[in-house]
Amino acid sequence: MPQNKETPIVMKLEQNRKIMNDRVGVDQSFDIGYRSLNILDHEVNVYYVTGLVETPIVVEVLRQLFEINEGSSEEPSVFKRIKDDIPHQQVETVSSIDKCITQLLSGLIVIFVEGESEAFIVDVRTYPGRTPEEPDTEKVIRGSRDGYTENIIENTALTRRRIRDERLRHEILQVGERSKTDICISYIQDVADPGLIKLIKEELTKINIDGLSMADKSVEEFLVHQGRNPFPLVRYTERPDVAASHLFEGHVIVMVDTSPSMIITPTTYFHHVQHAEEFRQSPPVGTFVRWVRYFGIWSSIFVLPIWMLFVMQPDLLPDALAFIGPNEESTIPIIIQILLADLGLEMLRIAAIHTPTPLSTAMGLIAAVLIGQIAIDVGMFVPEVILYVAVAAIGSYSTPSYELSVANKMTRVVFVILVAFLGIKGLMLGFLAYVLLLANTKSLNTPYLWPFLPFNAKAAVQIIFRLSMPSLRVRPSFLHPQNNTRQE
């Protein structure tokens, strides 16, 4: 879509006012505020959006403009007098009406002065939204309770509070022909790879669409070109401490206005299986928690297909494990029971999301006690199917990344179907295809299975064990940081 040539501000205020009325709809939209003032015999027009500005500051700006008339009129330039007297720390001048309109709709006030070809932009925005609170999906026993919100200004401040480094950069750009969505690229200048920063900027500036109504998710799809790959190629976080930790490593954070989820780039598979709780405990405890989580993730993928394989081929079981398998006969094939139970649990999860909180607990009890037990009593499911489906579901819920847990569910269903048709060959073929898919996946030119493919011994140890902070002396090599040393 070709970009239109910017409309310059002209010295005739009436012409500027007509353009603003036609393009913004001052007389049609009730939330577009407009005031016409007379300052030292010069007409001044002030525009603002009532829902996006901080009213006391706007009132103070207007009061100060009125008081200019009471002072000395010896100042040769009204424009300079207004600029000097505006009581705000962030005032800039622009010469394009297009920039004025974009800033106006972003929550800033625009001031036009008769006889001047420039306008004032004063940042008085205050976006509606909730206060910072702990994210529901990233709760910790110890640690901070604040979290990112839908306000990009608050989000950059939450990050700066943790990184008081003059080399921290927050670069903002606007994407969307109609939405003009603010996107902030955050990185530490002397740490992050300049090539990575350049690549992310190029991908974002290539976005050519009316608007980003789904905010961060829409940006992700343009940024990493995921296609049919179900595995997440970026990591989301709503915790400022997690984002700060990744910035120190050399990652680049992408913030999208109206979304509390920060996009961490680039990421590997193992970034999606880590949780802040591991780093809030001592290294031995953190390692134990990590291993339990790894076991849960493994269970969510392989427990059901392996159990089904043993049911189909009991001769593979040693005598000590001969008890594995259904103890009751059923007219419904095991594969159908597994798929129905798995699908039922997924439906319950979706229903819980859309159910009001006071009713969700009751719905869970009904599903677990009544539906499950009755399904066993009437012979629709054997008890072992419910058991192993529940184990797989618990493993899915222990996966920190929601996106990865859903991808693992899809993988589990494929494994079950392959085992049903091909037996042990199906399981081996499925596992081989699974590893090859992950090995050939890249996130912004970063190998998805690093540090195991390609292999990096020191980084692999950090994946298996939760090491103490004093022992983490270098940054991850796959990020190609400019400054590789974290501490001397």
Summarize the structure.
The protein is built from 16 helices and twelve strands. The chain has 488 residues and is α+β, with helices and mostly antiparallel strands. The strands form three sheets. The chain has a five-stranded antiparallel β-sheet, with helices on both faces.
Q: For the largest sheet, list the strands in their spatial order.
A: 1-2-4-5-3
Q: Could you say which overall geometry the principal axes of the C-alpha atoms support?
A: elongated
- Write the H/E string, N to C: HEEHHEHEEHEEHHEHEEHHHHHHHEEH
Instruction: Give me the count of strands.
Output: 12
Structural class label: alpha+beta
Average pLDDT confidence is: 88
Helix coverage percent of residues? Answer: 40-55%
Chain oligomer state: single chain
Write up what this structure looks like.
The chain is of the alpha+beta class and 488 residues long. It folds into three domains: 110 residues, no CATH class; 132 residues, no CATH class; 165 residues, no CATH class. 45% of the residues lie in helices and 12% in strands. The protein contains 16 helices and twelve strands. A hairpin with a 2-residue loop joins strand 1 and strand 2. Helix 10 packs parallel to helix 14 and helix 14 runs antiparallel to helix 15. The radius of gyration is 29 Å and the shape is elongated.
List keywords for this structure.
single chain; alpha+beta; 5-stranded antiparallel sheet; 488 residues
